[in-house]
C-alpha cells in the first residue's frame, strides 16, 4: 500500500486482525488436504525414515565363488557368510554370477581364485577378487569396503595363528551421541525438517497463490487492511499448524521410534519456531511472485522441498559437495535446522550451535519476508 | 473422433505451455535439478575436518597424522590441545571426529607389541562417521604394515583386487544422472496430470467439458496423453544431458528405454489422474501428488537398496512403478541389459499401468456422472 489511511484505533485494528486470522484458520481447517499434509504425511515420512530407509546396509546380496575349495578358502568363505553385512550365495563358477550382476540380482561377486591356498602357503601374494556393480556407486563402495574388512580381519586372524604376529594397531572406535550408529537416529530428526518445509513453504505458497489466482487477494487489499497485517494473518495459522505438526513428530520420534532425546523441549520448540520464519517467508514470497498454484507448487518444490532433502546435510554430507554447491547450501534454511535438531535429540542442548543456527534462520527469514512484503505492495500499486 | 481428440490434446498442452512463466517452469527447474543435485547428492565422504589429540612425541604418531592429512577424505587435521577442545569442536560440528594418540604409541609400535589408537566419531552423522571410521582404520593398518616391513618377519598379506564393473572409477554422476531420468519423469508426469482435472473443476470448466460432444474415454485420453508427451520430452532432455554433458556410457538399447518409459509414464499418469479425480481443488491435487511422490521415491531402491529395507516392507515396493523403471534406466545406461531382461521389468509396469488407468477411469466416470 502506497498511502496508508489514517491509523485506526488499536481496538478496531486488533479486531480486524483477528477476523482475518479466523478466516484463514477456518480455511485451513475446512480443507482436508491441509490436515493431510500436516498430520498424515509426517506419520508416513517418519515411518519410512524410521523403518524403510536405512543407510546401514545389512544383508547386502553378494555372491561368492570359491574356485578351488580347500580348508583355507572355506574358512575365508565362512567369514563372509557369518558377516552380518552380507547375504551370500555360494558357487564354484563365476559366470552365472556375472550374469546376475548385469541383471542387478546381486550387488557384487567375491572370487577366491584357484591359486589362493597355494599362494597363501607359499607366502606369495594371495589375492581375493571383488567385482562390484558400479552402476550403484553407493552400494559398490559399501561392498568394497566391507569385503576388504572381512578379508583383512580374516587374514590378521590367520597370521596370528601362524605366529608371525606383526605389530598391529588396535583402533578403538567410540561413537559419541549415537553409539549404535543407527541411521534412524539421525534420519528421523532430519525428516522433521522436511515435514516443516512442506507445511511452511509448500502449503502456504499454494494457499496464498490461490487467493491471487482467484482475485480474492485484491479484494482484501481494497479493504483498509495493511500489507503487514495481511501477511501476518496469512502466516499465523500455518505457524500454529507447523508447530502442532512438529509436536506430533517429536512424540512419534521419541515414543514410537525410540530416538533418544537428550536436549530440552524448549530448545526443540525454539528451533522449530525459528525455522518456520524463513519457511513461511519463502512460501509468501513464492505465492506473491507466481500468483498461480501450478507455478507456486513447482517453485516450492525446486526451491524448498528438494533443497531441504538434498542440500541440507540430511542425507548427503555438505562437506563432500563441490565448493559452488556448498555456497548454495548457505541460503537453504533447512541446512541450519537439521544439525541443531540432530543435536537436540542426540547430543543435548549445544547452545552455541543452536544460537548460531537460529540467527542464520532468522536472517534468511527476514530477507524472505521483506521480499514478500515488497512484492505484495508492488502488485497492487 | 480424431479431430476432437486432437483438439483436446492441443488444449491440454496449451493449458500447461501457454503462459511463458509456465513454459519456463517446465524447462528451467528440471535443468537446475540436473546440474545442482547431480553434484550434491553423493554419499561419498570427502573434505571432512578431523581433530588429532597427540600425547605421543615419537615418529609413528607424526607419520599417522601426515597420512591422514594426505588422504582425500580429509580436508584439515587440526591438532587439538585438550580433551575439552575436542569436546567443544565436535559438539559444534566443526569436525567429524578425533584421533586420540596415547603417550606410548610410537614406542609400542617400535617394540612390535601392537599399539592402541582411539577414534572418536560424531554419531549425529552416523553414515559419514562409519565411512570415516573405516578409512582411519585402513590408514592405521597401513602404518602398522610399514612398521612391520621395516622389521624382520613379513607374513603373507592378502591383497584385494577390486574391479568395478560398468563404472570403473565409481563416478558418482554415472549412477545418479540415469536415476534422475526416472525421477524427473515421475515428478513432472504426476504433477501435470494431477492438476489437469482439478484445475478444470476449480475453474468451473469441467462442466463445459461434460456438456461437450466428447465421450468419457476421449476426455480421459486427452488428459493422459499430454503429460506423457511432456514426460517423454523430459526423458529425452535428460538422456541427452547424460550422454553429452556427463558422458555416461550408453551401452544398452536406447529404444527399449523409450518403450519402458512410455509404459512407466502411463502408469504415473494413471496415478496422477486418480488423484486429480479425487481432488476438489488444485491444492488437494498437488498435496495428494506429494503423498504419493515422497514414499514412491524413498521406497524405490534409488537411494538405498530395497533388500536393506525390513522384510515386511519389501513387498510394498512391488507396486511402485519407479522401482522397475530405475532398473531399466540403470540397465540401459551402464549395464548393457538384454532386451529380455528389460521386458521382464516392463511387464510389471504394464500391470501397474492397466490398474492405475482403469482405477482412474472408473473414478473419473463416477465423478462425471
What distinguishing features does this structure have?
heterodimer, A: 381 residues, alpha/beta, abc type-2 transporter like fold, 2 domains, 5 strands, elongated, B: 369 residues, 4-stranded mixed sheet, 66% helix
Walk me through the structure.
The complex is a heterodimer of chains A (381) and B (369). Chain A is α/β, with parallel strands linked by helices and 381 residues long. Chain A has two domains: 10-53 and 182-380; 60-162, abc type-2 transporter like domain (abc type-2 transporter like fold, 3-Layer(aba) Sandwich). Chain A has helices at 10-30, 32-52, 71-82, 95-103, 116-121, 137-162, 184-214, 216-221, 227-256, 265-290, 293-310, 323-329, 334-346, 351-380; strands spanning 60-66, 86-91, 108-112, 127-133, 169-176. In chain A, helix 3 links the parallel strand 1 and strand 2. Chain A is elongated, with a radius of gyration of 28 Å. Chain B is built from 13 helices and five strands. In chain B, helix 3 (59-70) links the parallel strand 1 (48-54) and strand 2 (74-79). Chain B has 369 residues and is an alpha/beta fold. The relative contact order of chain B is 0.10. Chain B has helices spanning 2-17, 20-40, 59-70, 83-91, 105-110, 126-150, 172-203, 205-211, 216-245, 254-278, 282-298, 321-335, 339-368; strands spanning 48-54, 74-79, 97-101, 115-122, 159-165. Chain B starts with a helix and ends with a helix. Chain B is elongated, with a radius of gyration of 28 Å. A four-stranded mixed β-sheet of chain B has the order 2-1-3-4, sandwiched between helices. The longest helix of chain B has 32 residues, at 172-203. Chain B folds into two domains: 10-41 and 169-368, no CATH class; 48-150, abc type-2 transporter like fold (3-Layer(aba) Sandwich). Chains A and B meet through helix 2, helix 4, strand 4, helix 6 and strand 5 of A and helix 2, strand 4, helix 6, strand 5 and helix 7 of B.
Amino acid at each position: 500500500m502506497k498511502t496508508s489511511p489514517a491509523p485506526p484505533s488499536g481496538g478496531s485494528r486488533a479486531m480486524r486482525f483477528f477476523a482475518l486470522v479466523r478466516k484463514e484458520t477456518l480455511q485451513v481447517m475446512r480443507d482436508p488436504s491441509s490436515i493431510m499434509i500436516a498430520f498424515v504425511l509426517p506419520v508416513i515420512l517418519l515411518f519410512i525414515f524410521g523403518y524403510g530407509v536405512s543407510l546401514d546396509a545389512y544383508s547386502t546380496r553378494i555372491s561368492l565363488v570359491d574356485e578351488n575349495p580347500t580348508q583355507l578358502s572355506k574358512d575365508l568363505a565362512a567369514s563372509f557368510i557369518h558377516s552380518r553385512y552380507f547375504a551370500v550365495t555360494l558357487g564354484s563358477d563365476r559366470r552365472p554370477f556375472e550374469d546376475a550382476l548385469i541383471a542387478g540380482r546381486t550387488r557384487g561377486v567375491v572370487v577366491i581364485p584357484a591359486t589362493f591356498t597355494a599362494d597363501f602357503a607359499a607366502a606369495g601374494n594371495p589375492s581375493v577378487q571383488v567385482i562390484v556393480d558400479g552402476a550403484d556407486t553407493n552400494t559398490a563402495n559399501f561392498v568394497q569396503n566391507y569385503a576388504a574388512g572381512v578379508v583383512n580381519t580374516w587374514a590378521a586372524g590367520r597370521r596370528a595363528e601362524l605366529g608371525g604376529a606383526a605389530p598391529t594397531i588396535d583402533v578403538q572406535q567410540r561413537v559419541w551421541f549415537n553409539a549404535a550408529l543407527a541411521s534412524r537416529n539421525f534420519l528421523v530428526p532430519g525428516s522433521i525438517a522436511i515435514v516443516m518445509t512442506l507445511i511452511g513453504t509448500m502449503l502456504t505458497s499454494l494457499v496464498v497463490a490461490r487467493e491471487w489466482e482467484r482475485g480474492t487477494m485484491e479484494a482484501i487489499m481494497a479493504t483498509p487492511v495493511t500489507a503487514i497485517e495481511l501477511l501476518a494473518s496469512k502466516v499465523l495459522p500455518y505457524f500454529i499448524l507447523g508447530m502442532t505438526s512438529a509436536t506430533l513428530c517429536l512424540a512419534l520420534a521419541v515414543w514410537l521410534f525410540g530416538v533418544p532425546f537428550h536436549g530440552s523441549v524448549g530448545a526443540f520448540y525454539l528451533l522449530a519456531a525459528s525455522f518456520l520464519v524463513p519457511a513461511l517467508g519463502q512460501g509468501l514470497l513464492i505465492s506473491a511472485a507466481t500468483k498461480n498454484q501450478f507455478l507456486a507448487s513447482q517453485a516450492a518444490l525446486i526451491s524448498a522441498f528438494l533443497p531441504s532433502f538434498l542440500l541440507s546435510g540430511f542425507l548427503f554430507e555438505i562437506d563432500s559437495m563441490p565448493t559452488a554447491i556448498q555456497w548454495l547450501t548457505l541460503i537453504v534454511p533447512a541446512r541450519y535446522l537439521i544439525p541443531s535438531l540432530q543435536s537436540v535429540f542426540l547430543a543435548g542442548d549445544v547452545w552455541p550451535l543452536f544460537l548460531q543456527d537460529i540467527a542464520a534462520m532468522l536472517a534468511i527469514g527476514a530477507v524472505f519476508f521483506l521480499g514478500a512484503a515488497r512484492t505484495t505492495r508492488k502488485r497492487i500499486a | 473422433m480424431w479431430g476432437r481428440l486432437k483438439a483436446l490434446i492441443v488444449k491440454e498442452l496449451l493449458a500447461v505451455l501457454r503462459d511463458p512463466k509456465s513454459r519456463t517452469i517446465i524447462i528451467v527447474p528440471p535443468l537446475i535439478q540436473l546440474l545442482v543435485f547431480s553434484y550434491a547428492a553423493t554419499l561419498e565422504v570427502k573434505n571432512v575436518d578431523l581433530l588429532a589429540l597427540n600425547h605421543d612425541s615419537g615418529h609413528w604418531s607424526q607419520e599417522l597424522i601426515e597420512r591422514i592429512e594426505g588422504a582425500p577424505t580429509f580436508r584439515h587435521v587440526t591438532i587439538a590441545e585438550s580433551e575439552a577442545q575436542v569436546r567443544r569442536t565436535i559438539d559444534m560440528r566443526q569436525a567429524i571426529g578425533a584421533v586420540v594418540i596415547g603417550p606410548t604409541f610410537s614406542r609400542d609400535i617400535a617394540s612390535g607389541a601392537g599399539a592402541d589408537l582411539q577414534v572418536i566419531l560424531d554419531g549425529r552423522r552416523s553414515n559419514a562417521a562409519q565411512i570415516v571410521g573405516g578409512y582411519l582404520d585402513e590408514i592405521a593398518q597401513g602404518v602398522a604394515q610399514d612398521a612391520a616391513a621395516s622389521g624382520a618377519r613379513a607374513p603373507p598379506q592378502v591383497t584385494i583386487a577390486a574391479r568395478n564393473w560398468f563404472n570403473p572409477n565409481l563416478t558418482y554422476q554415472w549412477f545418479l544422472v540415469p536415476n534422475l531420468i526416472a525421477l524427473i519423469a515421475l515428478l513432472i508426469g504426476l504433477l501435470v496430470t494431477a492438476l489437469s482435472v482439478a484445475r478444470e473443476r476449480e475453474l468451473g470448466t469441467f462442466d463445459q467439458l461434460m456438456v461437450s460432444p466428447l465421450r468419457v474415454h476421449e476426455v480421459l485420453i486427452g488428459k493422459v496423453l499430454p503429460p506423457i508427451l511432456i514426460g517423454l520430452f523430459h526423458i529425452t532432455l535428460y538422456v541427452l544431458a547424460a550422454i553429452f554433458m556427463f558422458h555416461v556410457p550408453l551401452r544398452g538399447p536406447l529404444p527399449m528405454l523409450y518403450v519402458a518409459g512410455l509404459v512407466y509414464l502411463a502408469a504415473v499418469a494413471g496415478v496422477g489422474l486418480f488423484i486429480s479425480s479425487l481432488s476438489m481443488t488444485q491444492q488437494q491435487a498437488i498435496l495428494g501428488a506429494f503423498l504419493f511422490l515422497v514414499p514412491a521415491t524413498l521406497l524405490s531402491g534409488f537411494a538405498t537398496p530395497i533388500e536393506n529395507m525390513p522384510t515386511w516392507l519389501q513387498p510394498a515396493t512391488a507396486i511402485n512403478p519407479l522401482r522397475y523403471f530405475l532398473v531399466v534406466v540403470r540397465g540401459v545406461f551402464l549395464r548393457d541389459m538384454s532386451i529380455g531382461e528389460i521386458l521382464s521389468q516392463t511387464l510389471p509396469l504394464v500391470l501397474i499401468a492397466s490398474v492405475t488407468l482403469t482405477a482412474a477411469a472408473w473414478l473419473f466416470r463416477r465423478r462425471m456422472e
